Amino acid sequence: MRRRASLxxxxxxxxxxxxxPTLRWYVFPRVVKIxxxxxxxxxxxxxxxxxxxxxxxxxxxxxxxxxVQTLKGNVEESRRIERDAGRDVVVWDSLSYVAxxxxxxxxxxxxxxxxxxxxxxxxxxxxxxxxxxxxxxxGIEFKWPFLVEKRDYxxxxxxxxTSAPIHYKGTRTxxxxxxxxxxxxxPWTRVPMPKSMPIKGITPDLLAKTxxxxxxxxxxxxxxxxxxxxxxxxxxxxxxELRNAKALMGQDTITVFAGHVKMREDYVESVGELVKxxxxxxxxxxxxxxxxxxxxxxxxxxxxxWLEARSRRPEPDARPGPAPxxxxxxx
Length: 331
Description:
The chain is elongated. 30% of the residues lie in helices and 37% in strands. The chain contains five helices and 13 strands.
């Protein structure tokens, strides 16, 4: 009976020992992924800021500029691209909507971001664009891969339509969470005019005919959860200018927008809660369950060996009975 029990325990030990690496190295890269139907809204603010008044063509100090960033998963496009790509693909249709202190639109930039659901690597496919312009991304945008490494990554900048390194600057603590801090500085670069302008009748082509050019620089900062790869906080020190404007506006360079953009407090809290819940699910697959199965396999193996050793011990001799009466020879 003991030998049969030890064999059963040994079989379970082998099973759990095999499941531990299987979860980490086979199940995780195939099962854990970004859902294709994700919807997320983030509100950022620059308080105070400098903003161009298009009615006077003068840069003015304002109390606040609001930026609403919307990410919406396009399930139909994901399925269409997956048929050709042969892998799980996510399509995010995003919109960055900038509003002035009066709530009126300053600019809006739509994007379509296509990437691998498991690795977050870009998938270059038809429809990939920024503000209606076709692009071919290299590197990440919006989100880092699962299990972030302590290294630099290529990050795509939607304004310049180019990718450049975003640098790992160390491990920090953000509101009780251990995060990786990344930073990137985009030098002054000439960028396209937005397709949507705040004044009706003014178009990028019309501005181009006047000789105006738009220039942009930013220092972007991200605090990234190393497990899920999701930003728990993001900031930018952002500045845009119109140059070659002397003939039209009386001076060569005019500030269009300048300010320190930060996530609004309530969105920092909601994003943090979302990241914590997703973090637990990822850790279950890559850490908690594999280690639990490993320890359980060792315990079951030890118990099986102990039972097997006991089953092989010789049985102790039976307890001796009473001594027989002595036999005497007949007289």
